[in-house]
Amino acid sequence: MDPFFTLLHSFSSSLSDNELSSLKFLCRGKIGKRKLEAVRSGSELFTILLEQQVITSDKVAFLEGLLKSIKREDLLSQLKQFVEEGEVNDPDDEPDVHEKPIEVICENVGRDWKMLIRKLGLSEVKMDRILAANPFNLREQLFQSLREWQKWKGKDAKVADLIKALRDCNMNLVADRVEQ
């Protein structure tokens, strides 16, 4: 399976309807109006761009521009990783050394989870996306926010940073449990 197609498929499945509409609008100079009107998914859009060779696995500048325009830095960083390494490693496949601390935090932090996530430096936009994806599940909102923080920080995601953020939010009991 072509790693570039896998990457594009991953991008497609993470696009919201508004983001797809924005991408279609931005592609108007490259794709005819009739074709664009028929596009119903990111996969269809990427297929057209591939067919017209606007994007290829070694020609990603246009795709980079699209992702910057819709402010999807997460996808942009995956694309840059693909360019540098030749393929993208799925973050879910990597061993997760923070699983226990995240579990403890999710079990013990309640409605004040946003304060914690802000202390960790995650953007409001990313938090809003997570809220929209999990509107009625507080625990899942916190869990996904912590996972997003891990992806964003990568190797720099340290348990010590979680503990410091918890203490900064006066969540000392939770910080003590994470330390244990």
Automatic annotation (TrEMBL):
Alphabetically list the UniProt keywords: Apoptosis, Cytoplasm, Immunity, Innate immunity, Phosphoprotein
Annotated DED domain ranges read 3-81
Q: Which GO terms describe its biological process?
A: extrinsic apoptotic signaling pathway; innate immune response; positive regulation of cytokine production; positive regulation of extrinsic apoptotic signaling pathway; positive regulation of innate immune response
Q: What is its main location?
A: cytoplasm
Segments passing through the bilayer: none
Q: Which GO terms describe its cellular component?
A: CD95 death-inducing signaling complex; cytoplasm
InterPro entries this protein is in? DEATH-like_dom_sf, Death_dom, DED_dom, FADD
Q: Does the keyword Cytoplasm apply?
A: yes
Q: Name one Pfam family in it.
A: Death
Name of the protein in question: FAS-associated death domain protein
The species this protein was found in: Haliaeetus albicilla (White-tailed sea-eagle)
